Amino acid sequence: MDTQQVSAPSPAPSRVRGDATPSSGVVHDNSRHTSRFTVVGNHLTQHRELSLTAIGLAAHIQSLPAGARIGIKDLAGRFPESEARIAAALRELEAHGYLRRTRTRLANGRIVTRTVSCNQPADRRPTEAAPGRECSPRPQRTVRPLVPVRPCREPEADDTRPLRSPAHIVPVPGRERAPQSRSTPLLVPQPAFPAPSLLRTAADLLAGLHRQDPRLLLSAQDVDVLAPGVAAWLEREVGPAAVEHVLTGELPPEPLRRPAGLLAHRLTARLPPPPFRAPADSPPRPFPLQNCEGCDLAFRAAEPGECSGCRNEYSHPTAQQL
Hints:
- By secondary structure, the protein is an alpha+beta fold.
- Among the domains are: about 40-120 and about 155-160, Arc Repressor Mutant, subunit A; about 185-270, no CATH class; about 290-320, no CATH class.
- About 30% of the residues lie in helices and about 5% in strands.
- The chain has helices at about 40-45, 50-65, 70-80, 85-95, 195-205, 220-235, 240-250, 260-270, 310-315; strands at about 100-105, 110-115, 160, 290, 300.
- The strands form two sheets. Strands 1-2-3 form a three-stranded antiparallel beta sheet. A two-stranded antiparallel ribbon has the order 4-5.
- The chain is elongated and about 135 Å long.
């Protein structure tokens, strides 16, 4: 009578909430990873302000080993996105704290720029009190408005440059920067003959630069200041198309804080020489002065000899001499 009934059916397993297959939306078929995986927070994958390119790029960077190169050219060679799109995604991650750029001075006097990947920005990290100790209230601080992070150019892992004074900085094509101080007046070359028609052509050229790049939208005051510089180029027989190509070609990928300053720098640093013009025919130079061998009077001749009076006297003798 006390034998256990082994043929009795086992009770049904309890159903865990959330196991039911949803009627719509995504269905996950997950497998547990045991190797080659990276933990990525939902604050990144479900970020409401980052683009899909920035989210995917951040996940890729977090999966790389330490020391891997993440320059713009390296990422553009790995993915089908363009360099401009990758640079914009890196600026998004830097603005939201997922990337941090630091500069370190080396022993030889050079500086190196490094990029630090943060899997969790500082503003999202939880602050916990020590065990057995209550958190003491912190003194209230004055809340200051957040300053937007200034985007900088994409650094390379081996980017080393010597420190130089601003007067010795050589402009690099595609990485020119406008002066940061707005109080600095713009200095541009001046034309020798500022004709009204020439200045009008220069102003129209400057006002239309934003059609090539929206970042080159200038104010009326900037156009008035830069117009003489463009007129100096036109005066040197440089066509409007060539001037526009110099001003809009090889612009840096980051936002231009002061486009007028960049244009003023290019108008001054790349000013071509004046056109060559053959000199006009100069009048013949007079013969040098010579002393006459007969009468010792001064006369002009190519070579030493006698003056015209002495030559006439010996060439036409008088009747008394005959």
